[in-house]
Every structure is written in structure tokens, then in C-alpha cells.
Amino acid sequence: MSSPLLGVLVLLGACHHETASGGPPPPGSSGGLGAQLQALAQRMHARYGGAQRLEEAIARSDLPRAHTEAHTVSLLDEPDVLPTWRPYFEAVAETARQLETSGDITAAAKLFGTLGVRCAHCHDASGARLVLPPPSVLAAGSATMAEHQKAALEMWEGLMAPSDVHWRAGALALTTVPLTMVAQAVTPSSEQDVDDVAKVRLYARRALDAGDHEARAEVFGSLLATCAHCHALLRDR
Predict the structure, then answer these.
(1) Which tens digits make up the pLDDT trace of 7-40?
(2) Considering only CA atoms, which of 155, 44, 51 is closest in space to residue 96?
(3) pTM, whole model, 2 decimals?
(4) Which of 86, 135, 214, 230 is the most buried (most CB within 10 A)?
(5) Which of the 8 DSSP states describes residue 133?
(6) Tens digit of pLDDT for each residue in 161-170?
(7) Nearest-10 Cα torsion for 83, 88, 93, 97
(8) Taking a C-beta distance cutoff of 8 angstroms, is the pair 136, 157 a contact?
(9) Distance between CA atoms of 14 and 56, rounded to whole angstroms?
(10) Are 226 and 155 in contact (CB under 8 A)?
């Protein structure tokens, strides 16, 4: 995914205008606007990659790895952005710090949903439009865990971009998620295994009706926590 040039220019463009008009250069601008744009784009890519790894760690119920990835995201500062946009980046970093110290995987999942809505608020405010590939998720009833992960990632991208197309594509795919590994074992180890699958379908259906960022963040956090619980049960059985 590439960060949109329009959004990057909005975050830094006023600084460039002031400098061109004879005003003082912005902090950290010794390399010129081009260098600032490149550095900002690289950090946006780093956030995106870190968030992807963080989502995967939570889904796999790997809390130590989730803490590590959250720490990486929390350290990504933006020294050159206009003061107007700084609160948005600080909100993202603060949420990452909270996730880094989360006490359990459910709390981490809920905070990850919050992280997504913090990103969406910044993208909305700056007018940024992220360039995402067309949705490519599992067909209804598909049974591989990799495809389930792909559908959850589509929802995450839809939340943080934000993109209705990606959000709905991922949610729709998960409304028919099969039993996969639980089904292959013929008999689930407990009723809770089946309950988690039902919950995933339930949250996916709710996601289709979630119209604003906050509602989507809440339902995604709950869905991700359910994925984590199911994966932990399957791993530990």
C-alpha cells in the first residue's frame, strides 16, 4: 500500500508555503520539503506494516509479540507535521502505548480497534485517500485460515483507511466462516470452540450494519478478540 501524496502534502504543504513566502522554515526541515515528504511517507508505511503485524499477533493470541509490535508503532514520531495534525499522530502513538501495556489479549484486541479509528480520524481530517488494492478475500464458505486472516485484514484496512468497500468485503466473507480446524477434528473439544465460530459470524453481520468509525472499531475489536480466543483454544487443546 502506498501513502497518498495528497494527504502527505496536506500535512506538510502549509509549512512549504510559509518558507517560500520568506517565513521561518519548519522544525527539522534542513533537508527540504522533498526529504520531509519522503520521510513522512516512509513512516506512514512503517505504521501500516507494524499495524498489520500487530493485527496478526493479536489474532494468533500472541500477546508478547503484540506488545513488541505496539512498541514499534508507538515510537514513530512525526517531527515535521503542522501543529494542526500533531494531535492525530499523538493519539495514534498513545493508543499504541496503551496496547503495549495491555494485560490480556482481549484488551489488546479492543485497543487495536481504537488504533484503527484513530488512523481513520487523521485520514479523514487531512483528506488523505489511501491507495489500497481491490478487495481480494475468501469466497463464501472457504475453509483455510489464511483466507480468514485475509478477510480480517480487509476489515482492518476498511476501518483505518477508511474504505467502505474493503470493510464490507471482509465482513461479508466472514459471515459464512466455516469451522475449519475444529470441523476437521470431527468433534470439537468443547462447546466454546463452536461458540467462537458463531461469534465471528455474529460480529461480521454486525459489521455490515456499523456505519460510523466508532461502531466499526468496537465491532472489529470484539471480532479480533474472538479470533484470538479460538486460536488459543485450538493451540492449547
Answers:
(1) 444 555 433 333 333 444 444 444 577 787 777 7
(2) 51
(3) 0.80
(4) 230
(5) P
(6) 999 999 999 9
(7) 120
(8) no
(9) 37
(10) no
